[in-house]
Design goal:
Elements (H helix, E strand, L loop, with lengths): L12 H5 L12 E2 L11 H13 L11 H11 L6 E4 L2 H12 L4 E6 L3 H9 L3 E6 L8 H10 L4 E5 L11 H9 L4 E5 L3 H4 L13 E6 L12 E4 L2 H10 L7 H12 L2 H22 L5 E2 L6 E5 L3 H10 L2 E2 L1 E2 L9 E5 L3 H14 L1
Parallel strand pairs: 1-11, 3-4, 3-5, 5-6, 6-7
Antiparallel strand pairs: 2-8, 7-8, 9-10, 10-13, 12-13
Helix pairs in contact: 2-10, 3-10, 4-5, 4-9, 11-13
The structure holds pyridoxal-5'-phosphate.
The site of pyridoxal-5'-phosphate has 12 residues, from helix 4.
């Protein structure tokens, strides 16, 4: 469709009202804008995966809900396989959760938070209840609890560690939130391997808790598009109904399954990212006019007086980061993904030259 042509009249109002996902990606040498892993899979593991892929029957439909991968995830997490649902990226599961629980209902989200929750909330006619985080991006627990009790949202999303802010919410506070409602609370643990803190042990007791994970970050599989949720089987069975069967293709399922069976490489990535993140944090903190926020992820959020100028100057230096400057809480904020050591040095050097 050309840009100027009008959409067909039957396109829903809610769909027309939102903008399509768009990422401004000017030419760059260093890609530090999407929180991907800077490291591709170890060559030996990639070679093993390729052998496996060659043996698959590409002409056949895969298992409708990728049972082999579900079982492997269940083993790793100490959870039951019928309490696992996998899909082609956790974004798809975000959409499925909204469809299963909250079409035309209420969705609660922290503010600021990961943008996709709001997008799917809007597309499915929900009322969005945004609960402001504190100035340091910690949870306003009392306010959150009162929203859960009074507004009774059908669905609540909380990323932990938080995105795009990077901080970790205390387990104790999240537990209080999960206990304060019987409706579903999704704790999106996309960056869990970097923080090492999870709410998985709470799944047994809290039937309204759903934990969401992705292979796109620490597992270095952004291109394979694999995500999953963990929850009570009764919840998983319902969400499964709105997820199209075969939505995870056989190739990606095999990639993720093999990667899980040799997940030692993830520990190395997590260790290196932790060390590099500390160095980037220190170097940014030493710069005048920059406020840096602590992170338990593979990215760092920072505030500068002139986000546009900084963003453009970095692009000129070949470094692409993300301008997340928006609204009150993220005003003048930029976000940088931790890259390889050489990339991080280049980023820091460019920042130092700017100040
Ligand atoms: C909090 C959060 N959840 C989910 C995702 C997306 O995960 P996936 O690649 O599995 O769709 C991201 C990606 O940036 C994220 O930051």
């Amino acid at each position: 469709m050309s840009r100027k042509s009008k959409p067909a009249v039957s396109i829903r109002r809610e769909v027309r009202a939102v903008s399509a996902y768009h990422l401004n990606q000017p030419v760059h040498r260093m890609k530090l804008n999407q929180n991907e892993s800077a490291y591709d899979l170890p060559p030996a593991l990639k070679a093993r995966i390729l052998k496996k892929l060659a043996k698959l029957q590409w002409n056949r439909y895969p298992s409708p809900y990728a049972d082999g991968l579900r079982e492997r995830i269940a083993q790793r997490e100490g959870w039951r396989a019928d309490g696992v649902l996998v899909a082609n990226g956790s974004n798809v599961l975000t959409q499925s959760l909204v469809m299963a629980t909250a079409v035309g209902g209420k969705i609660a989200i922290p503010d600021p938070t990961f943008s996709l929750y709001e997008l799917y909330g809007r597309l499915f006619k929900n009322q969005l209840v945004k609960i402001p985080l504190q100035k340091d991006f910690s949870l306003d627990l009392d306010r959150f609890l009162s929203v859960l009790k009074q507004k009774k949202p059908d669905l609540t999303f909380i990323p932990n560690p938080s995105a795009p802010t990077g901080n970790l919410f205390p387990k104790k506070e999240l537990t209080q939130l999960v206990k304060a409602t019987s409706n579903i609370i999704v704790v999106d643990e996309a960056y869990y391997p970097f923080s090492g803190e999870t709410l998985v042990p709470l799944l047994k007791r809290q039937h309204n808790l759903v934990i969401m994970r992705t292979f796109s970050k620490a597992f270095s599989l952004g291109g394979a598009r694999v995500g999953y949720i963990l929850g009570q089987p009764a919840v998983i069975q319902e969400v499964q109904k709105v997820l199209p069967p075969f939505c995870l293709n056989a190739l990606s399922a095999a990639v993720a399954e093999t990667a899980l069976s040799s997940a030692g490489y993830v520990d190395k990535i997590v260790k290196e990212v932790g060390q590099e993140r500390e160095q980037v944090f220190q170097a940014l903190s030493a710069l005048p006019g920059i406020e840096v926020f602590p992170s338990m992820t593979n990215f760092i959020l920072f505030r500068t007086r002139e986000p546009e100028r900084v963003f453009k100057a970095l692009v000129k230096a070949g470094v692409l980061i993300r301008n997340v400057s928006d609204g009150k809480r993220l005003k003048n904020c930029l976000r940088v993904t931790i890259g390889k050591p050489r990339e991080n040095r280049q980023f820091i050097k460019a920042m130092q030259q700017l100040s």
